[in-house]
Amino acid sequence: MTRGPAVDATARRLGPGAVMVDVGSDDPARVVAVAAAVRALPGLPVADVVPAACTVLVIFADGRRAADVDVAAVAAAARAALLSVTSAPAAGATTGAPTGLVTRTVERAAGSPDVLEVPTVYDGPDLVDVAQASELTVDELVARHAARTYMAAFVGFAPGFAYLRGLDPRIVATRLDSPRAKVPAGAVAVAGGMTAVYPRVSPGGWRLLGRTALELFDVARVPPALVEPGRPVRFVPVDDHRSVARGGAAGRRPG
């Protein structure tokens, strides 16, 4: 849900070495556009730009202090980026993610990343419960989850854990009352209107629909995270774990 007008971006200093930009929207395409615009500002010594749900954190390099940075210029760049993101298709489109908006923004911000296809065996322990809560059959739940092209909004909780927006609104999935102590690596999960893949063994409270052998985070890879903010992701049902293993090395590009 958009929190305000598309141009309602603000910026403020956050501690001695960073600036926080409030995008005024939780639309991931807008957040990605702002992150790219700030990173490209000339003369700004940026160590890192961290997109979140509706903000962008700018961390400065070379000992540059936030007090020495023109915060108004950062805010102006953010507003200009938002003005360039002007349209999106109607809610509920089959792709789930706002395709036209995402395509234009991602092309500018990240060189038009490939859609990452995630081979998934839908045999998770919460599959039946989520189907019942959603008033769907298991087959209908799987079909709806796999029909969408999601967009990575931000990364959090654990390295490589990307929060993917675009879940079908018919899929009802609350977090577990008591989180599991151990969720397996590659678990494909849903909760709170989002979907994600657990990159490593960890505790977790999302509902598990299946699993993939795709390695979402690998410190030996550059970049380590396979899914970064702005990347489109699609889940592809497969019948057995051997198919997952064969497709799991780096994901597949759509044919």
From TrEMBL:
<dbReference type="InterPro" id="IPR003833">
    <property type="entry name" value="CT_C_D"/>
</dbReference>
<dbReference type="InterPro" id="IPR010016">
    <property type="entry name" value="PxpB"/>
</dbReference>
<feature type="domain" description="Carboxyltransferase">
    <location>
        <begin position="9"/>
        <end position="227"/>
    </location>
</feature>
<protein>
    <submittedName>
        <fullName>KipI family sensor histidine kinase inhibitor</fullName>
    </submittedName>
</protein>
<keyword id="KW-0378">Hydrolase</keyword>
<dbReference type="Pfam" id="PF02682">
    <property type="entry name" value="CT_C_D"/>
</dbReference>
<dbReference type="InterPro" id="IPR029000">
    <property type="entry name" value="Cyclophilin-like_dom_sf"/>
</dbReference>
<dbReference type="GO" id="GO:0016787">
    <property type="term" value="F:hydrolase activity"/>
</dbReference>
<dbReference type="GO" id="GO:0005524">
    <property type="term" value="F:ATP binding"/>
</dbReference>
<keyword id="KW-0547">Nucleotide-binding</keyword>
<keyword id="KW-0067">ATP-binding</keyword>
